[in-house]
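Quick one, T. Sequence first:
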Amino acid sequence: MTVLVNLIVTLGMLGIVPAGLRLIDPVGLHRIARLWPLLAVPGALCLWLPRGSLATVLAGLYAAATLALAARAPARLLRTRSLAPAEIAVLTALVAPSVAATALVAERGGHRLFGFDLDILALTVPHFHFAGFVAALVAGLVCRAAPSSVGGLAHAAAYSVPAGTLLVLLGYFVDDWAELVGAVVLTGGMWAVALLTWREIRPRARRRVTGALLSTSAAVLVATMLLALWWALGEATGIPHPTLTWMAATHGLGNALGFALCSMLAWQRLGPDLTEKTP
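Structure tokens:
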């Protein structure tokens, strides 16, 4: 499981995050998006080292970059003075990598942060790069691009994805039932994103490849979030459910390649007709 999770996280650090930053603000975040792969190299390298001082220092360097990115969130809020659904989603995306990096520093140092097992901290890293950063960003993009006729569903998705991510995080501190509530909210939001992507965004794609990428991302979301719901329900009730290794190979890999990568590529290809409306 470790090798697969590390590959997923490396993809998120080096490729997915800078692509997402360009979608958030192609002008204002252009410099940091261009530098991000370099800033993320220490974080990617530390994944493959044994736990210890060197790995912790490298993780700390990456954490510093994510904290600088998170600082853009309050600055953006002061500038826009907006708590619109799409803005909430984007603010969540800007902050999420810092949560992942904090968990990474603790895990690489062998420190049970807040008493969590090191395996849980290790899985928090991909969760907040993908469920935190990518899912919130795509929910915001879909909300901005969706027509007013489905505005209610789009707004609900843009709110529920950040809310669900936060509830899952809080569930770590409370119990499995609280985490299940977060999984239900997050799954509902992601299914709404999938539905809107399929029905409202995909038909507006001018190129076949872009439409195929959007179709793939929507279809994968339905399956991977069903797995997440199954796992959370099993943890809370004790019913048979997938192991963490199986979840990494299905839910994790599916979200990384089928949802996150396809979504980033699709939104970059959509063109001025949609990207001008991005958050």
